[in-house]
Design goal:
Structural class: mainly alpha
Distance between the termini: 11 Å
Radius of gyration: 15 Å
Number of strands: 2
């Protein structure tokens, strides 16, 4: 559901809003960040890398503001690729796996995180950013997707 809202947002957001800054970050960059975090959480090994996208890691992780707008089409393609990876990783998890600690991500964030908790965090993080982006639509008198 979280991915569906994000994809719907990319489909409906007008170009002028896509490029504007809202809540301290450009709308497109918040979408890029939400997708990149999905990508980050599914990496199991330190030698696995992010799927390629037209933005640096500092931009994707909201450490620096992007200098050029990445198009909705590019971001939707990136998002679909990440979603396919997320779906594939989640499909191999059994019910018993949900209580196991996701070692790599736990080490990166500094606390133990089970696969179930990771899934909840992914959904809530994505919907948080959809909500932030929705505010940009509403600021222009348009309905949000969430």
């Amino acid at each position: 559901r979280a991915w569906a809202l994000l994809a719907q947002y990319m489909d409906t957001c007008p170009e002028n809003i896509w490029a504007e800054t809202n809540g301290g970050w450009p709308v497109w960059q918040q979408v890029a960040h939400a997708i990149a975090v999905l990508n980050f959480f599914i990496l199991e090994k330190d030698d696995e890398t992010f799927l390629p996208v037209s933005a640096g890691i500092g931009v994707l992780m909201l450490k620096e503001q992007g200098k050029t707008v990445v198009s909705k089409e590019t971001m939707l393609t990136y998002g679909k690729a990440v979603k396919a990876e997320v779906d594939a990783r989640l499909a191999v998890l059994s019910d018993a796996d949900l209580t196991k600690v996701q070692e790599r991500v736990s080490k990166k964030i500094g606390r133990e995180l089970t696969y179930a908790a990771m899934m909840v965090m992914l959904a809530s993080h994505t919907t948080y950013h959809v909500g932030s982006c929705d505010a940009a639509l509403r600021d222009h008198g348009l309905p949000g997707v969430f």
